[in-house]
Amino acid sequence: MHRPSRRSRRVLAPLFTLLALLATALTAASPAQAAVPNRLGFVLWNGAAVVASGTTPAATTVVPIGIGRYQVKFPGQAAVGGVTHVTAIHTAPHSCQVENSGPSGADQIVIIRCFKIGGVLDNSGFSAIFSHSSGISGFGPFGYVDALPGGGIVGQYNASGAANTVTALAVGQWLVRFPGIGSAGPVDGSVQATPVGTVNARCKVANWNSFPAEQRVWVYCFTPAGAPINTRFTLTYQQKVSLYGPSYPPKYFGYLWFKPPVGPPTTNFNSVAGLGVNTLAGAGAGLFLVTFPNIAFLPDTVQVTAFGTTPDFCGLNTAWAHIGTSTVVRDVNCFTVNGAPVTSGFTVSANSQF
After folding, report:
1. CB 159 within 8 A of CB 142
2. Prior bond of 75 cis (ω within 30°)
3. I need a surface site. Which of 110, 150, 240, 273 has the fewest CB within 10 A?
4. CA–CA separation, 154 vs 136, rounded Å?
5. What CATH class does 36-132 carry?
6. What's the CA gap between 351 and 339, in Å, rounded?
7. What are the pLDDT digits (tens) for 119-129?
8. d(CA 273, CA 282)
9. What is the per-residue pLDDT across 276-291, written as a single tens digit (0 to 9) for each?
């Protein structure tokens, strides 16, 4: 076997060192190229315990820290600039919001507040999701913002690499633009919005439009009494991808827009069966049964956001169920500011980790 001479080894050594450094640099940089998401956690809290079927990582914890306040720890998911959504789960009119979200060591800590009618802190079940993405994604139109009341952005992501913008229009009203992830329109995909802060607010999507160059979403937020309010909020846009970004994997997700009496087919998507197959049926005053066939794979999460320009708000009556291979949301519940059941528009998004 031929061995290189001492002189050859001296000549080649710098080259080997350079190649090793280049390989290390490429390895270090690779997560930023397609990190959608690079951090993920969701949790289902039934009011007394964490429910494993709606929670990942498995070691995620929820600790009550007073009436209506909860500390969620997503182990190993620490990130700055991600996005968090939460939906109240209660048979009576309740709403939940994010008080704060941020890293603590290797973990992501999310503080959640839940309220009953009148803006009074009250215990409630909830479903929450946290994710953080970076780099350019080839999965599909996807983006999020964590926005301040004046339009400043705390954190954001856009699958095209473009910069999202938030424009304050009036008290409690904003226009969010996601450039570079446009589509044929007039309305495609789905959206979720959540208020952030210590003051009780309820945020919803007033409208959205799809254009070839961008997605435009109008967000409205209200006080418990129904007056417009300036607040921090989070907003996520998804189109043929899950609520946290990828389309494959996960293979199992779906979304639906209920714009009474129905939403357009382009806002009703199922990752297994395509457009228009998810179903909705009235289940009583202010109650709506939503079925997502073929996507009942655990763990999974469901999020709901009210739609429209009025102060009506929506949540979940009970946690979703799995019947065969279908994810069954039983039910979305919607209320007026006074707590009366109401037929309201809403978006609902169901997402498996896989």
Report:
1. yes
2. no
3. 150
4. 19
5. mainly beta
6. 29
7. 999 999 999 99
8. 23
9. 999 999 999 999 999 9
